[in-house]
Amino acid sequence: MKVSKVTILFYFVKLRLSRLFCSNQVSQNRKKKWQNTLMLSPFYKKLVDNNQELPIMNKALFMRNFDLINTVGIHKEEAMKLAFESEQTRDFSPTINNISIGLSSGTSGNRGMFLTSSKEKAIWVAAILDRVIGFSIQKRKVAFFLRANNNLYEAVNSTLLSFHFFDLKIPLEKHFEALKELKADILVGQPSVLMGIARIYQTRQIKPTYSIVISVAEVLEEDYRQVLYFIFNCPIKQVYQCTEGFLGYTCKKGKLHINEDWLRLEKKYIDDENTRFHPIITDYLRTSQPVVRYELNDILHEDKNGCDCGAKSTVICKIEGRSDDIFRFSEKGKEVIIYPDFIRRSILRASDEIVDYTVTLTAARTISISLIVENPLKWQEVFENVQYEIQQLLNEFEIEGVDIIMTDHKHDLTTKFRRIKNEYSTCISH
Fold it and tell me: What phi, psi does 335 have (nearest 5°)?
């Protein structure tokens, strides 16, 4: 089902006005419509009727109540079956009652599922045009490299944007000739994929001609951003989006803003200094599947200085990673935690030769490190420097008896790339 250009334009104007005039607050009219939506959800109607507080959600609770939360009568088993069949056949066009079904990548161990109606597709496209790509009457081609396609993207073909899906199950090298022939205006992908594409351009000594490159799905770290900007020679924008919706975007000043003209943002601080928080999101535009007080396990840092782009919405200066990837150790009967940022800083101190890396907690007292270095002949020297810096970090936290070992650097592009990972399944915090 195609979304008409007129419908997209209508929502584009509405969202542009809300960004300009209420960038940090949700209008009363929008809240009223949202309250009507809640009454269509059996889960939330019961709570509202009984004057109960709306609970904080997480993925497990959300999926457990999938049938009762959604407002379009779709059952979890039916939707999950369709979504898995689409992933196996790579045909993402089927819908249920004109509702598109999508799956999250499931990096936290549980796969989320999201529903999208025709109206929600139009709003999403309008929001992306307004906040990320910019409006144009000329049709533009978008090349997007993702783990899975979705009707959310295909629905807008032949209107303002022409989306071309490149399946990450196929190696990037095999896509490259088709990518060149497409001559896309906009390139979209997760940072690790964009880096892979950039390296192919560089190796083949071909000059890219994109007007915008958009990073999605993974944390866009500063070293990646600098390399991508150098190779693509165009703006590198970041879209903060997940199963729970389109949450944030990079403004013209290069800062990441939360879409607070349709999202309510609650901050759950997770450190004593109140610098790191989990976002708790309420989306006032989602109708087929209400997202209400949904706590993400992303670790965000707020830029207290705001932004001089004109928007008054919350500015995020850093997405540090996920709480699942905090390193946790038991030391003398107490839990000691190390946030991902401390590990990143240790790596940066170790050597300028490091091109990429992973640091993984694989057991209670084992940290595995993989490295890609500029000069392979210096690999051992760089690894020893990294070992030293990580050991110094552990000493600072008075953590003893940890083995720091080397491992091969591998990454499957169909999964999200995380430099800092906690894979110790029996972590004491769980």
Answer: -85, 130
- Domain limits of the chain? 5-321, 326-422
pLDDT of 101 > 80? The answer is yes
In order, the DSSP letters of 278-346 are EEEEEESS--SS-EEEEEP-EEEEE-TT--TTS--S-EEEEEEEEGGG-EEEEETTEEEEE-HHHHHHH
* Residue 79 and residue 97 in contact, taking contact as beta carbons nearer than 8 Å: no
315-322/298-302 β-pairing: antiparallel
Stretch 105-118: mean pLDDT, rounded?
Answer: 71
d(CA 102, CA 92): 9
Is the Cα dihedral 325, 103, 154, 88 positive or negative?
Answer: positive
What is the distance of C-alpha 44 from the center of its chain? Answer: 27
Mean pLDDT score of the chain: 87
- How many CA atoms does the CB half-sphere of 41 hold within 13 Å? 24
pLDDT at 182: 94
* 271 neighbors 52 (Cβ within 8 angstroms): no
**Short-list 89, 80, 66, CA closest to 288:** 66
Q: Tens digit of pLDDT for each residue in 65-93?
A: 999 999 999 999 999 898 888 877 777 67
Residue written as token pair 């990143």: 344
Percent share of the chain, pLDDT over 70: 93
Specify the CATH number of the domain 326-422: 3.30.300
Q: Kindly indicate the confidence band of residue 19, based on its pLDDT and cuts at 50, 70 and 90.
A: confident
Nearest to 421 by CA among 373, 370, 364, 362: 362
Comparing 166-170, 171-175, 210-214, 235-239, the range with the smallest average pLDDT is: 166-170
Is the pTM value of this prediction over 0.85? no
- 22-to-28, 261, 283 alpha-carbon distances in Å: 11, 6, 15
Cβ atoms of 320 and 332 within 8 Å: the answer is: no
Question: Domain 5-321 is in which class?
Answer: alpha beta
For the chain, give the percent of residues with pLDDT over 90. Answer: 53
Distance between CA atoms of residues 5 and 118, nearest Å: 13
d(CA 231, CA 235): 11
